[in-house]
Amino acid sequence: MTQWTNDAAIRRWGAMPRVVLETMEQDGDFAKRHLVNPVLLRMLGDVRGRRVLDAGSGNGYLSRMLAERGAQVVGVEPGQALFDFAVEKETEQPRGIRYVQADLCDLPDLGSFDAVVASMVLPAIPDWAPAMRACVSALAPGGLFVFTVNHPCFEQLWPSWREHGEYRTRRYLAEYEIEGPHGVDFHRPLSTYLNELAGLGCRLREIAEPGLDPAVAEVGPEGIDAYVHLPNFLLVAAERG
């Protein structure tokens, strides 16, 4: 596996073309709208008046959703193009979101938070464990940490299903990179994330593996029916001890 550094990964994601950012839906792509967002928002519960850190806020779509639900949001994003886009959207339509450009592994002191969300972020960080530690450290005692990842068991679900009509997995226990059009993610076994979480003294509240509603799959992109049968995403909610 290529020896990626955090800086190299940040530069790669941070060079996302403007045209790609402009075409993103305000509430995320199809999978986020129908699989990730509903469960994530349910896990967070009522966020009105709560301080929420959007760790790895990307283009800011989740920060905006949380702010519109009454949260006091701080979004942290290291990638230049993503950060600039989020700040621009906040300038165009202020929601009270504060954006900070920083590496999650070197998080500045932003005060304590009632909840920290790291959605689809940890797999994009080569040296990811310091980022999880920073997220948990930013929580007030008893605060809620929610993270989402592509399910380590089924992260290649869509292409495998389209090619074979079933899911095939190999090298589950290894760590390896998964090239994407605008960045790189890193496969890690599920136990890697959960053991780190336990080591930080967090109390597990819930693990979710959402499946797609068959009726939604019928009107979705070709091949999306795979998400009806197997979970492409994993969501974890835990409390700081």
Automatic annotation (TrEMBL):
UniProt domain Methyltransferase type: residue ranges: 53-147
UniProt keyword terms in alphabetical order: Methyltransferase, S-adenosyl-L-methionine, Transferase
Entry's transmembrane regions: none
BP-aspect Gene Ontology terms: methylation
InterPro entries named in the record: Methyltransf_11 (IPR013216), SAM-dependent_MTases_sf (IPR029063)
CDD domains referenced in this protein's UniProt entry, alphabetically: AdoMet_MTases
Superkingdom of the organism of origin: Bacteria
GO molecular function: S-adenosylmethionine-dependent methyltransferase activity
The name this protein goes by in its record: Methyltransferase
Organism: Catellatospora citrea
